[in-house]
Amino acid sequence: MTFQTHTGNRGLVLEEKLIFEQGEAGRSGVDLPDPEPVKSRMGGLERDSDIGLPGLSEPQVVRHFTRLSQKNFGIDSGFFPLGSCTMKHNPRLNEKIARLPGIADLHPMQPESTVQGALELIDQCAHWLLVLTGMPAVAMSPASGAQGELCGMMAIRAALDARGENRRRVLVPESAHGTNPATAAACGFTVDSIPATADGRVDLAAFEAKLGDDVAGIMLTNPNTCGLFERDVRKIADLVHAAGGYFYCDGANFNAIVGRVRPADLGIDAMHINLHKTFSTPHGGGGPGSGPVVFSDALAPFAPIPYVVKTENGFHLVETADEKDGKKPFGRLKGFHGQMGMFVRALSYMKSHGADGLRQASGDAVLNANYLLARLKTKLSVAYPGYCMHEALFDDDFLKGTGVSTLDLAKAIIDEGFHPMTMYFPLVVHGALLIEPTETETKESIDQFCDAVLSLVAKAEAGDSEFFKNAPYLTPRRRLDETAAARKPVLRWTPANA
Amino acid sequence: MAKKFSKEHEWLEINGDVATVGITDHAQQALGDIVYVELPEVGKKLAKDGDAAVVESVKAASDVYAPVDGEIVEANEELDANPALVNESPENDGWFFKIKMSDASQLDDLMDEAGYKAFVEGLED
């Protein structure tokens, strides 16, 4: 190693072969007696070749998977400021509750009388979401943010069909998550994008000009993906309603406003809530997502089955509903009850924080982002003026003339021991760097990140672009050939001697 | 005949009532290494600004729009096997499709080479 990183952090240098490359024929972790001869009933279809499992001792297996886990970088390992992803700490209390035998050992097909507590838990989780959003109804079953969007837009489609109206145009701001236009298109709508103003919000005049009797609704993220609160959101809601459309809100950034703004007061008709972002359930490969959707009165009848109700005889999971119940569910999105394990964790988070704690968490998330913004804008160019909400957004203007790109800078940030921020998104910002520290981080960890980034920017300004072009230096693998991986993907491992 | 250019960074080479369409050198540079191109089917009728093709790079997937009304008469099958042609020869061998124009007057809305160059320089400020 020919240089020192700013933090003194080192990348993970352990080299690890594939488990199939480590095996040796005949080696085994267990010593089992030879099986008794059996008469095959496979009618000659039994396999006659080796199944190709590697021969490994138990410590080899343990070390292999331990080393692989050490190569993984997650929120449990360090600072993970991936913008619009809300990579917050998953409190261990959540995990303790989720592992209680009475919860962990449940089966979704158990008789209802034996799972009353679990149904009550879903009902309570739903209740918290309704109180926090001020909305009258919620569908708990969607299994991700994207499925939540699908749920909301299918409800809008069902409501329009019930009105007998063939409205097919959905307005989506340019800075939206890519899933928004994709969802609208998947539901048979056409997407019409709304330009942004110079300060990163929806251009109200352009939006108003696009309204018409063919508009099904608007899909808006608030706070938006520029980390800014849409200050005209009430007006947008009134205008889209006056034009006969619905207001879908992408709730991916709900973490910035929990306990401070009730989506119902903004005129929203449907909004998904990422339990795996806002309510701390694990995500990013650590656990399934969960995207419950809250609905206004206008859309509530179209919410999907199943849902939990409280009756005289206890809690009941409603699996079919129709007009005699005052419902017109558009169908079912997910098997069984939804992501039960995530409801447990989210409710643990909500109840352990309490209303005051949730309100403080959103405040701390916004404070952390603004602290980071204030420190970094001394060197980095902000995309939009003013304070931000939960994430700070920069463009690549500060790199102009250095020969260093946003990507190069991100690679160097890895060497400093941080997961890079979201890059090149939102698309409306050139070379974007979107940084969301969340309330998880201490001032010390944010300072360490800012010091590292500022030192890298100084290095770029000093003209050392070669250093950046070759970063990262300390990772198990350096820059991967993404082009070859996409053009000539190798999707299956084959032994070297095959 | 000289080339025409759109604000969506497409070039058109006009031959009678047929225009050969591709993306500009500036566009391929901005996109980075192209890994996939989805081309329109021959016979497909497109309106100006309608989705004609999709181009995917290691950085992003982008739509390519029909710069004029018309019908697709040929697509560059070479790009299926070798999308890198778009990087190597964006304004020549890396063409996307040929469209039979139904309204040649729409060409008047497009830029000439000098106009496009000024347009790109304006974007970089």
Automatic annotation (TrEMBL), chain A:
Broad enzyme group: oxidoreductase
Source organism, top-level taxon: Bacteria
Start-end of Basic and acidic residues biased regions: 36-50
Residue span of region Disordered: 25-53
Coiled coil is among the record's keywords: no
Gene Ontology terms: biological process: glycine decarboxylation via glycine cleavage system
Catalytic activity: N(6)-[(R)-lipoyl]-L-lysyl-[glycine-cleavage complex H protein] + glycine + H(+) = N(6)-[(R)-S(8)-aminomethyldihydrolipoyl]-L-lysyl-[glycine-cleavage complex H protein] + CO2
Gene3D superfamilies: 6.20.440.10, Aspartate Aminotransferase, domain 1 (3.90.1150.10), Type I PLP-dependent aspartate aminotransferase-like (Major domain) (3.40.640.10)
Task of the protein: The glycine cleavage system catalyzes the degradation of glycine. The P protein binds the alpha-amino group of glycine through its pyridoxal phosphate cofactor; CO(2) is released and the remaining methylamine moiety is then transferred to the lipoamide cofactor of the H protein.
Record's protein name: glycine dehydrogenase (aminomethyl-transferring)
Organism per entry: Thalassospira mesophila
UniProtKB/TrEMBL annotation, chain B:
Highest taxon, organism lineage: Bacteria
Modified residues (N6-lipoyllysine): 59
Short name of any one Pfam family annotated for the protein: GCV_H
The keyword Heme is assigned to this record: no
Co-factor requirement: (R)-lipoate
UniProtKB keywords: Lipoyl
Domain Lipoyl-binding per the UniProt entry, residue ranges: 18-100
Entry GO terms, CC: cytosol; glycine cleavage complex
Keyword S-adenosyl-L-methionine: no
Cofactor binding remark: Binds 1 lipoyl cofactor covalently.
Assembly with partners or alone: The glycine cleavage system is composed of four proteins: P, T, L and H.
Purpose of the protein: The glycine cleavage system catalyzes the degradation of glycine. The H protein shuttles the methylamine group of glycine from the P protein to the T protein.
Similarity remark: Belongs to the GcvH family.
The name this protein goes by in its record: Glycine cleavage system H protein
Name of the gene: gcvH
